[in-house]
Amino acid sequence: MWKVCTSVLRSSVRDYNTLRALPSLSRHLSSASSGSSSAEPALTVSSQHDGIRTITLNNPKKRNALSLDMLESLRRDLLGGGSQTDLQVIIIAAEGPVFSAGHDLNELSPAHSRDKHVEIFDACTRVMTLVQDLPVPVIAKVRGLATAAGCQLVASCDIVVASDTAQFATPGVKVGLFCSTPAVALGRAVPRKVAMEMLFTGQPITAQDALLHGLVSKVVPESKLDEETDRLAQKICTTSRSVTAIGKACFYSQITKSRDEAYREAGEVMVDNLQTADGREGISAFLEKRKPTWSHQ
Hints:
single chain; 297 residues; four-stranded mixed β-sheet; 12 helices; 10 strands; 14% strand; globular
């Protein structure tokens, strides 16, 4: 049992160390993608300051559709695009009035082969699972409409801050393509009956209903969206990166287990957490009534 539970700790630390080692990979991916036409605007734009990386979906003319190219660009920015050594949180935002309209239906037309369709859904799955496998929290900052795979991306993020005008939908059933892959993330974020209503009718829900059902973490006025998202990100940046990585990995591991198995795993991960440098420093700082000095180890 100890081996099973400590594997969560080791996995989270390994993922954290892997992320720290990614600058060279990021440079390789960037150079590999530089062969694309310079006349085309970047599908995603990434910037990083003070431990916060913001990735912006940047194709508003196509409603930030998650085309194969957009998915690959988003994946590159999630993995790299800035310093890994001080990265503590990622924000996914979008340019324009639509957060994301989901897959590019032109790519899903009969004009493309089955193999192409498999490639697209595999790429989407890689991005959605990467969001939860990354050792840092990922926040979705949502303005406007998030539909289908766009709603799936929202549901996959660890925290979601939405404007009070945002809406969420899984309307694939209306065009003959049931939102089966978005349902994986949606069904793990909201109650089953709510998910099924969204999937069977395709009707959008409001930001307030999304908050009520657990799809989003917080709803704020449009004018406060940037401020509130930044506040949450900055709060996360005051914590230990390595401890956050341990906690995130354990959360997603235990949530799929039975109650007793989950308690066994989480309890032993906490014991292991106490043996880390920052685990010891945090407890000592509390007892000594001082601010902790994180080594992120």
